[in-house]
Amino acid sequence: MIRKVSVMEENWDYLIILDACRYDYFSKLYGDYLCGRLEKVISLASCTLEWCKRSFQERYDDVVYISGNPFINSMIETEGFNAKDHFYRVIDLWNWGWNEELGTVHPEKVNKAVQSFKDDYLDKRFIIHYLQPHAPYLGCNLLTPGFPKPQINRGRFLTNIQNSGTRGANTYLKTAARALGTSLVKILAIFAKAEDKIGFLGKPSWKIRELLNLPPASPMDAARRKVGESGLRQAYVENLRLVLKYVARLVEDLSGVIIITADHGELLGEGGRYSHSPERSDPLLVEVPWFKIEKDKKKKRYEVTEENKTNKELSEQTYGAEEEEEFKKRLRSLGYL
Q1: 291 - beta bridge partners?
Q2: How many Cα atoms are found within 13 Å in the side-chain-facing hemisphere of 92?
């Protein structure tokens, strides 16, 4: 029987999170990059925020969280989850490490952040959260421009008219109301709400949007339109290979017990379904890797470089209204509301 894993009940020194990483894809690819012991486990959730709420229910003063994902931030409470209440420190890499051109945080930036901070907290454990293989896809020439950074707006994630997730379909449809007619808009809104409620993402509302020449629902939808379902899966593979390459480099400089896992999986067109949403039990959404590497417990100190100094200065900046707007933009670029 596959066991369900609560990450804070497990033994590790470094917990590496690959966002939206499916077990089946990981099991086929990891051997090209890593040596260790792989186990299939069940995640507590089928989306990031749900995973955070279920995984981190106490205060963990021995943990520093390096976060490429805007949901885990030190700035505000995100739909009931306030990361700064749970960890010794949250390093907002999603903010100062964001690549405007790519519309995400490149895994190389994650590696450099770990190098900048890990020797400042020799008595702490680290959670290291990469955004890949989550869309947007950085290989196969699939990068689609126009997905802005996430922003914060009084603690709520608002829909962008260019790039909303499935639950943001109403925003698209309202803007199209004058051209399409109120009745048709209401019908399309019903489709979108029904899809989200039953977790049947991407069919039929994504195709309807495409037929009506509405913008893509998300980076994943943009990739699907460009290369189709098989091309989308190949793009996911390339994203996973990219992050595994950088994880392998990072692991060389870590010691102790290192776990590589995922917050949740991903739907890539199976049965017409795409992406991920909360409260789902589909194996493709909850079966994730639990990959264990054990190394001698030693700490390697990094040379203090100008980049490390800059990273630390950026991580200690204060946040105001302008920075909160940036937060919401970056979250939208990943297809969230």
Answers
A1: 38, 260
A2: 25
Amino acid 232 reads L
Which of 250, 294, 276 minimizes the C-alpha distance to 116?
250
User: How would residue 326 be classed by pLDDT, with cut points 50, 70 and 90?
Assistant: confident
Which residues on neighbouring strands pair with residue 92, listed in sequence order? none
In what helix (H) or strand (E) does residue 172 lie, and over which residues does it extend? Answer: helix 169-175
The number of CA neighbours under 13 Å toward the Cβ of 239 is: 31
What are the backbone angles phi and psi of residue 298, rounded to the nearest 5°? -145, 155
Euclidean distance between CA atoms 241 and 235, whole angstroms: 10
Structure token digits, residue 271: 């049965």
Contact indicator for 265, 286 with CB cutoff of 8 Å: yes
Which helix H or strand E contains 290, and what residues bound it? strand 287-295
Q: Which two tokens stand for residue 110?
A: 């994650």
Q: Is the pTM of this model over 0.85?
A: no
